[in-house]
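User: Run a structure prediction on this.
Assistant: Running it now.
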Amino acid sequence: MDLLADLNFLANIAHVSDNLGSVEDAVQRWTALFGYEPEEAEEHITEQRADLGACLISKALWESVQTSGSADGHDRESYTHLLKILNRKDRKSDSVGSDAVGGEYLVRLGRQNMTSRQIMEAAGLGERPKSFIGVSGAEEHNCASFCIVSSAARQRIINWALQRQLRCPDFIPISIAPKVFDGDSIAPTLGRQAILPQHRMKHIRHPPRPRQDEYPVWYFFYGTLQNPDTLRSALNGSDQDEYDLRPTKVFGGKLVSWGGKYKALVDDSSSVTPYAGAMANAVEGSAYLVQSECREDSLRIYETKAYEVVRCLIEFADGSEILGCTFRFRNAESLV
């Protein structure tokens, strides 16, 4: 999964929201089908239309429902809501799991949607969110603009729009590995607890590196991203692009299996880290120099929110060392 795929997906489905009928017509249908009060029906409709990524069942499935005679007064939009009700228990469980590790959303901008300035005001942001362009297929003229907001910001935007009786923007959930580096401590660092006395800043000569916005930055890979073809796909590169992957190892972590097929790097509490002047267990892999935040974002989306970006000590084959980044599995307790 990558950011470009998300943008292209939104560009492909964005026209669906433009072709939905009026809210008034939908309210009449939903009150008859589900027994809602008009205000309740409007709230459900607005919420579903706001979350466009989970909004409508596929066109093929809807045509199958119509052919089978199971539509029973529904249109594609209301039938999606019916399936949501029937699967509410499972969906609620999924939602709790998602909220437990946080979430972010792509938001469509412009046309009948909110502008980036309105998004900033509605979400209470200190500055305008960065915008991206999504292109639908090979037709470069068929494009749309998007930005990324957090789950909490999404809810504030919905509330802001409802209070002003404005059209809610379109959202699609994305899964991205969080990166939150503390500027006043070493947190988060593979195999090291910032709260321990020996790891506090007064015992460290220089500010923690790398910084949150430091580029270029070395990344240590230990799984599928060591494959140049996989890395090319994650970065949306062309066949002509070459990637300088260097043999390296990191300390303070260990590899475990997740889901029976994925490698997961977790802290190794049993090892003594080389920061203390002693040799530790090493995890071997490959290092790649990430040149920009854009490329880093693509890697974070590829790894998904099951992982988080942490600092680590990378050692090259010639013995030289550098502080870089890697992806640490977030729910290590579940693997015990």
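Residues 197-335 form a domain with the Hypothetical upf0131 protein ytfp fold (CATH 3.10.490.10).
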